[in-house]
Design goal:
Blueprint: E1 2-6, H1 11-22, E2 26-31, H2 41-44, E3 48-51, E4 69-72, H3 84-99, E5 106-112, H4 121-133, E6 139-145, E7 148-149, H5 154-165, E8 168-171, E9 178-179, E10 182-183, H6 184-193, E11 203-207, E12 213-214, H7 215-225, E13 231-234, H8 240-250, H9 255-264, H10 275-280, H11 287-299, H12 321-324, E14 332-339, H13 343-350, H14 363-375, E15 396-397, E16 400-406, E17 411-416, E18 422-430, E19 435-444, H15 446-473
Length: about 475
């Protein structure tokens, strides 16, 4: 079958893509920016990539007409706290327009469980997207899920951050809300199982794991699996805004996502029935087993995708190409260079930068900068990195975004997503004479931008000088 995969570079899409290829399907990946589709060269050679922003006026010539089925995995909850529902409806309308002139027989949509009368804005929007997709010409199969548990999922990473960092928690009353978490592996089984299955056409199904738990119980189970001491004190009152700030400062989530999540956490998300589980003969994985599977992937450095790599988790909201040309005029620069004795060692260190490895010099200063950034509404350092030694264009490295990653040249170009009065780039290149160049470029915005740069010069002297020396000479294990 020829499959149209929207949201191909999202958390779900990145995991679904290799499964579709393993099943010998032809896959057309739809992304806003082809440059940031974080897949290997081998996978790129097996797929067709189409650039579409579903918020723009449709150009139906971009989609092949011989599409057999399509996955709709788009959402805007992380990008806005006000108009994400309008954006989601508009995207779904335009998606229908694109499919109108194709032979697509089935659309598969992953939404949210919505069985309560008083739904959050997020869940109402998901229902509205379902209704919109059903107005298209293809049969629609809707899978409704609650909390998805897997390495790199936003829900799992939030629970992980909370439990690993806070042995004593003072929590809002929404931690008593019940939900039915589902393992990411089971979500994949359902998404693959309904493909081309006519028994699932024009129907919607709730999908969940075998456990119904409160959010408090989910954290307690997590702590037990991880052998952590955890004490939770629940307050009868805590405003949604205060709850959102609590999540934002303690975890790696963005404030916009935190606010929308808190709004949804007040609603119970429990499956109506197990119809699809019985139809596809799936035995769901327990919540505790899902946690163990997630950590098995983390410990083996096999995290396939992370919500943090999404553009909406940071500052860049448009194509990476808009930033990839480092400006030459009106900029302030710090350039360091060093002759390499071991080029391979330097390349290995450059491509392992950030995350657990750190920034090679003055990590405590980087951490302070991260705390300050978080305090002023930035992303901070908590996003880390998805892989310990692989970097793809579009990936996150703490409070940087990867604009270009080319080991053959070699060249690594990063753009700062921290809060700064201007724009900042950090670039590593090695020339034919084995000289490593490390260049920090800052384009200030107004007088305050220049004051910021010059006030940081003493720190730059130590940080950037120490960083390039350690990258060039120090072997890490």
């Amino acid at each position: 079958m020829k499959i149209l995969l929207t949201g191909a570079n999202g958390y779900i899409g990145m995991r679904l893509l290799p499964l579709l290829l393993e099943a010998d399907h032809d896959v057309v990946c739809v992304v806003r920016d082809a440059a940031r589709l974080s897949v290997s060269k081998k996978i790129r050679e097996q797929i067709e990539i189409v650039e579409i922003d579903f918020l723009d006026t449709p150009d139906i010539s971009k989609i092949p007409q011989d599409i057999d089925a399509a996955y709709y995995l788009l959402h805007s909850m992380s990008s806005s706290t006000t108009d994400f529902d309008t954006k989601e409806e508009k995207s779904a309308v335009h998606f229908n327009t694109y499919l109108k002139n194709t032979q697509c027989k089935q659309v598969i949509y992953l939404g949210g469980i919505a069985n309560e009368e008083n739904l959050s804005k997020h869940l109402r929007s998901r229902q509205n997207v379902e209704n919109t997709l059903n107005k298209g010409k293809a049969a629609v199969t809707v899978l409704r899920a609650g909390i998805i548990v897997g390495s790199g999922s936003s829900s799992f990473e939030i629970i992980r951050d909370l439990c690993e960092k806070l042995p004593i928690m003072i929590t809002p009353k929404w931690v008593q809300t019940k939900c039915q978490p589902i393992a990411i592996r089971d979500v994949m089984h359902y998404l693959i199982g309904v493909l081309g299955n006519e028994k699932t056409y024009n129907d919607d199904f709730d999908i969940g794991g075998p456990d119904i738990l409160t959010y408090k119980e989910m954290m307690q189970h997590y702590a037990k699996v991880r052998n952590l001491k955890l004490y939770i004190v629940t307050l009868p009152v805590m405003s949604p805004k205060l709850s959102s700030y609590w999540l934002y400062f303690i975890t790696s989530t963005s404030y916009k996502l935190a606010l929308n999540l808190v709004d949804s956490m007040k609603v119970e998300v429990i499956s109506r029935d197990n119809r699809l589980q019985d139809l596809l003969k799936i035995t769901p994985i327990s919540y505790n087993a899902a946690i163990k599977l997630a950590f098995a992937k983390i410990e083996q450095n096999q995290v396939a995708s992370s919500w943090k790599d999404s553009l909406v988790s940071g500052r860049i909201k448009v194509n990476l190409d808009d930033y990839i040309q480092v400006p030459k005029f009106g900029c302030l620069k710090d350039t360091q260079k060093i002759q390499l004795k071991n080029k391979e060692l330097a390349i290995e260190n450059i491509w392992a930068i950030g995350g657990e490895r750190g920034w090679y010099y003055g990590d405590w200063m980087w951490k302070i900068r991260g705390y300050i950034d978080k305090l002023f509404g930035g992303v901070g350092l908590r996003r880390g990195r998805t892989h310990p030694d692989r970097i793809y264009t579009g990936d996150v490295l703490d409070f940087w975004r990867v604009l270009l990653s080319n080991k053959e040249e070699p060249r690594l170009l990063l753009f700062a997503e921290m809060r700064v009065p201007g724009e900042a780039w950090l670039e590593f290149t090695i020339d034919e004479d084995n000289i490593l160049y490390q260049t920090a470029t800052f384009r200030p915005r107004g007088l305050f931008g220049r004051i910021y740069w010059y006030s940081m010069l003493p720190f730059h002297y130590f940080i950037f000088g120490g960083m390039i020396r350690n990258i060039a000479t120090k072997k890490y294990t």
